[in-house]
Amino acid sequence: MALRGDVRSLTQTREAVTQTLADHESRLRGLERWRYALPLAAITSLGTLIAALVKAGGA
Fold first, then answer.
1. Domain ranges in the chain?
2. Which residues cross the membrane (predicted)?
3. From residue 44, how far is each of 40, 49, 53 by CA, in Å?
């Protein structure tokens, strides 16, 4: 009987680990999609706009 309990416990632990890994994989894929979907040109132009606004506000 103790062996059955150990096997059940291991099965539940494996399922929990599998779910956690799937969740992490999903989060990483989402971050990668966001990162590569945002072109470098958009980031550069946004930085330039902010710098121009700061300069205009300080003048």
1. 2-58
2. 36-54
3. 6, 9, 14
Per-residue pLDDT of 3-35, as tens digits, reads 888 899 999 999 999 999 999 999 999 988 887
Hunting for tokens 């971050």 — which residue is that?
A: 31
The first and second tokens of residue 6, run together, are 């150990």
The Cα–Cα gap between 17 and 8 comes to 14
CA distances (Å), 45 to each of 31, 33, 38, in order? 22, 21, 12
- pLDDT bracket for residue 59 (50, 70, 90): low
- Sign for the pseudo-dihedral over CA of 46, 48, 54, 57: negative
